[in-house]
């Protein structure tokens, strides 16, 4: 009898993992890169890598449920005669009618209004449903100018000039033909059924000097009433923030690579741009050096999921945050109740990201009337409002524990980092030490 | 401000600034009796007469900077001089007329109305146009009608590199030489209905030229839906 020969356990490559192998096979079969929605899915230094210290002997806390912890924020105080006043510092990010159904857009407006915050249009223009259900609506002014109409500009409460977004800084967009319904086609002045490219650059300005003139034109047309936001993807946040201030922005929206998109190349989402955590301190530094911190407000987006993330972003110097992916989930996106249908699409609840294909079982990222009917805008709006309120309560809980009577009183000193990477990006000490990577000497504790 | 109602009301940028001029013009509505306005001393300032909504005639006596008559609705704006970047950008209706030359991105993303440039227009004329009609008496620079969606661009002179790159349904008429055509832009047959439309546009613009001397360009429609086999065209 032959002696038993031990075999080694089959070992898969760490770099050629199952996902990588499947992607190679998919590319070889189809000849096209992978397009998907959402933001970066890979593990990145993030807010989870930060902890609040809380109060102790040297700091005293505020009483939960009793002592006031203010959450209000005013946006656009620099030049606009009618700044935006919100009850909570969590706004809804721009998402287009076209990528989302009219019902989903209406639900976002309803939820934001119930929670005392703003929502934002997207590429494709403003729908009456959205305007009608949104107490405070921010109008995106995008490179494609699809549906761009001066009447809508005047109906908006603020204007957001979109330079880029975190999922694809430097990239434009594509709404594939299958999502171009009659209504979407009409709003965008294009034939039904063709792929609609969204330009990566604005057609009539290049660079900060031109942008300043463009912003002044928008102010002229809207009688200097409306705040002008400037949305940028996280790439060179220090310089971009300084240039945004120079260009005359009232508010800067800075979106990290975890921020979602309706559709772009997987390779773009995962390999271009900065994590949200790496964006905040350089942007705040630029504002502080220019004497504009809190005068030009900073909204941070990209991977905000709960009240802790809100509190951490604010502690690092943001005035508010914005949510997109999380808001979609609150409406019902990727809900396991549709697992059977997700399976039919070759995916599973929680992983569905082919938003560009328009077959969303939850009826959110679709223009299919039958699927879109699945979303009740009133109920979904209520869910979003509940979620926004929970996030706010969570952020207040943390702020009170740190002894703060306003969320804006949270500060970097309240934070430590769990990893060296997060400590370096957030510029707070590694937990249990006084070490901030990249800074010489000890911190002032 | 106004100098009495027996003469045209006049606004002077030097005296009241761009804000003062725009505020006065934007305050007018369809019912106004003051239909004819003159803007003096524009001094190349930006955003003059942008965002107008009333059916009024405005004559600007001199050169203007960026975005003159931007987002125009109904108004008939004449610039007696040259215009900077983005003249008539995103105009929705009405007429914008430049007696001199225009800089980059003239009529960018405009949805409707008529933009006339008697002289030359620079690069990206009619970029991403969405229904406007543009008539240029002279030549246009490179990348004109880039991603042009709908409307007409008439060029009585020559066109620069990459005319109509990634064009959708806009129609281009060029009388002179085209340096090169952009991706998915091709020459097309000039049929009687196109000659008639061209004659109508030239007449509306007040520019004399024989339609028979023009060629028509438009989309080959091969890039309307992504196809990996067309990747070399991008």
Topology readout:
The complex is a heterodimer of chains A (445) and B (234).
Chain A: H1 18-30, E1 35-38, E2 50-52, E3 73-75, E4 84-86, E5 90-92, H2 102-115, E6 119-120, H3 128-133, E7 137-141, H4 150-155, E8 158-162, E9 173-175, H5 182-188, E10 196-198, H6 207-221, E11 228-233, H7 237-246, E12 251-255, E13 261-265, H8 266-271, H9 276-289, E14 297-301, H10 307-315, E15 320-323, H11 325-331, H12 339-344, H13 369-372, H14 377-401, E16 415-417, H15 420-426
Parallel strand pairs in A: 5-15, 6-7, 7-8, 8-11, 11-12, 12-14, 14-15
Antiparallel strand pairs in A: 1-13, 2-16, 3-4, 9-10
Helix pairs in contact in A: 2-14, 7-9, 9-15, 10-14, 11-14
Chain B: E1 10-12, H1 13-26, E2 36-40, E3 57-60, E4 76-79, E5 95-98, E6 114-117, E7 130-136, E8 150-155, E9 171-174, E10 185-188, H2 192-205, E11 215-219
Parallel strand pairs in B: 1-2, 2-3, 3-4, 4-5, 5-6, 6-7, 7-8, 8-9
Antiparallel strand pairs in B: 9-11, 10-11
Task: Write structural notes for this entry.
The complex is a heterodimer of chains A (445) and B (234). Chain A is an alpha/beta fold. Chain A has one domain: Alpha-Beta Barrel (TIM Barrel), CATH 3.20.20.70. Chain A is 33% helix and 14% strand. In chain A, helix 7 packs across helix 9, helix 9 packs parallel to helix 15 and helix 10 crosses helix 14. In chain A, 56% of the residues are buried. The mean pLDDT of chain A is 94. By secondary structure, chain B is an alpha/beta fold. Chain B has two helices and eleven strands, in the order E-H-E-E-E-E-E-E-E-E-E-H-E. Chain B has an eleven-stranded mixed sheet with strand order 1-2-3-4-5-6-7-8-9-11-10. The termini of chain B are far apart. The mean pLDDT of chain B is 95. The interface between A and B is large, with 35 and 42 residues.
């Amino acid at each position: 009898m032959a002696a038993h020969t031990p075999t080694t356990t089959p070992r898969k490559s760490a770099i050629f993992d199952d996902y990588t192998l499947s992607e190679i096979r998919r590319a070889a079969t189809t000849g096209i890169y992978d397009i998907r929605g959402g933001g970066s899915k890979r593990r990145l230094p993030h807010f989870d890598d930060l902890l609040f210290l809380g109060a102790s002997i040297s700091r005293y806390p505020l009483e939960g449920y009793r002592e006031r912890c203010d959450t209000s924020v005013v946006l656009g105080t620099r030049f606009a005669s009618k700044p935006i006043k919100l009850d909570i510092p969590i706004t809804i990010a721009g998402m287009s009618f076209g990528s989302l159904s009219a019902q989903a857009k209406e639900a976002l407006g309803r939820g934001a209004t119930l929670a005392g915050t703003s929502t934002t249009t997207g590429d494709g223009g403003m729908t009456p449903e959205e305007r009608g259900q949104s107490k405070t609506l921010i109008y995106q002014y995008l490179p494609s100018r699809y549906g761009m109409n001066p009447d809508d500009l005047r109906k908006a409460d603020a204007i957001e000039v979109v330079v880029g977004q975190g999922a694809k800084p430097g990239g434009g967009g594509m709404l594939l033909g299958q999502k171009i319904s009659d209504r979407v086609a009409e709003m965008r002045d294009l034939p039904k059924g063709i792929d609609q490219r969204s330009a990566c650059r604005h057609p009539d300005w290049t660079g900060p000097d031109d942008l300043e003139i463009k912003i002044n034109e928008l102010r002229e047309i809207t009688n200097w009433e409306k705040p002008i936001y400037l949305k940028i993807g996280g790439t060179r946040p220090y310089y971009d923030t300084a240039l945004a201030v120079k260009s005359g922005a009232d508010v800067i929206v800075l979106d990290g690579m975890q921020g979602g998109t309706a559709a772009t190349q997987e390779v773009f989402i995962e390999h271009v741009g900065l994590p949200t955590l790496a964006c905040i301190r350089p942007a705040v530094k630029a504002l502080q050096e220019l004497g504009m911190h809190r005068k030009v407000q900073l909204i941070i987006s990209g991977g905000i999921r709960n009240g802790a993330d809100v509190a951490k972003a604010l502690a690092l110097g943001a005035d508010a945050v914005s949510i997109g992916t999380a808001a979609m989930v609150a409406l019902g996106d990727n809900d396991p109740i549709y697992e059977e249908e997700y399976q039919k699409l070759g995916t599973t609840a929680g992983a569905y990201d082919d938003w560009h294909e328009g077959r969303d079982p939850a009826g959110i990222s679709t223009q299919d009337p039958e699927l879109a009917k699945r979303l009740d805008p009133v109920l979904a709006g209520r869910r979003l409002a509940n979620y926004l309120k929970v996030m706010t309560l969570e952020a207040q809980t943390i702020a009170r524990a740190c002894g703060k009577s306003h969320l804006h009183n949270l500060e970097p000193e309240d934070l430590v980092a769990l990893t060296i990477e997060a400590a370096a990006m957030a510029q707070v000490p590694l937990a249990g030490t006084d070490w901030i990577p990249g800074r010489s000497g000890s911190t002032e504790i | 401000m106004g100098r009495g109602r027996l003469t045209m009301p006049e606004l002077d940028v030097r005296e009241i600034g761009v804000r003062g001029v725009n505020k006065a013009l934007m305050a007018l509505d369809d019912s106004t009796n003051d239909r004819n306005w003159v803007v003096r001393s524009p001094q190349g300032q930006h955003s003059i007469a942008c965002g107008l909504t009333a059916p009024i005639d405005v004559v600007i006596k001199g050169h203007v900077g960026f975005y003159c008559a931007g987002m125009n609705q109904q108004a008939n704006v004449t610039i007696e001089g040259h215009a900077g970047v983005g003249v008539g950008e995103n105009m929705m209706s009405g007429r914008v007329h430049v007696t001199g030359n225009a800089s980059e991105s003239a009529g960018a993303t405009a949805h409707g109305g008529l933009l006339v440039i008697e002289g030359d227009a620079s690069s990206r004329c009619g970029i991403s146009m969405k229904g406007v009609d543009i008539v240029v008496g002279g030549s246009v620079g490179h990348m004109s009608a880039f991603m042009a969606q709908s409307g007409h661009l008439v060029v009585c002179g020559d066109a620069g590199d990459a005319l109509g790159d990634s064009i959708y349904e806009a129609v281009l008429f060029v009388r002179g030489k085209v340096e090169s055509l952009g991706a998915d832009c091709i020459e097309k047959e000039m049929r009687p209905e196109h000659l008639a439309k061209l004659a109508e546009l030239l007449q509306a613009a007040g520019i004399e030229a024989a339609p028979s001397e023009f060629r028509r360009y438009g989309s080959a429609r091969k890039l309307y839906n992504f196809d990996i086999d067309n990747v070399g065209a991008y």
